[in-house]
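Worked Example 4.2. Consider the chain below.
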Amino acid sequence: MKISTIKDELNSLAYHGRGIIIGKSLDGKKAVTAYFIMGRSVNSRNRVFVAEGEAMRTKAFDESKMVDPHLIIYYPVRVLGNKTIVTNGDQTDTIYELMDKQMTFEQALRTREFEDDKPNFTPRISGIIHRENGDMNYAMSILKSAEGDDASCERFTYAYSNPIAGKAKFIHTYNGDGDPLPSFEGEPKTLELPDMDIDALTDLIWKNLNEDNKVSLFVRYIDIASGEAETRIVNKNV
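Applying the procedure from the previous section yields the following structure tokens:
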């Protein structure tokens, strides 16, 4: 299994699209997650992340330039009890609402498909962190079109029980730039999670995202035992 550094992995592509990182800190005490968005169009780049209690939402930076809020404005992060949900679209709400009705993460996502942004059919990527009995587990999902065919949806879920401290998994929407954009392939990538505080990790991720395409970044450290959380948000548009 290939294990990459965050720096090397983020510099491997100029355009990852949207990305989710989830893992456990090296000391085993914190659940760590990050979510970033990148953009090529004016509409995609015209966004900021805004904290809203434990949740986080996207917002137009300049309302006058917002062409279409469809697929652009949503809650990437919501918290349901001891579960933290992180996604690249309004499936955050689907997961929250259906899990609140006792459905599983995977069952909730069976009600959704990839985005309807032909010809890219952007994958929907999702993650969930679950704290229980002094430890954490997490899962990641990707919903993607089959070889660009919008009539066929492929669904993959990856579950990680008792995750290794100092490691994280990384999933993103695209395998680089292109027209149409090529979808992510394979399992989530394994990353080394450095022994550093939230500010240092936020800085590491932000500095290594492509300068032209990066838009916003969210990072959260969650104390596994208590549930107390620290959050950082960085926006290119300020």
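The chain is about 15% helix and 40% strand. The radius of gyration is 17 Å. Compare this with Example 4.1 before moving on.
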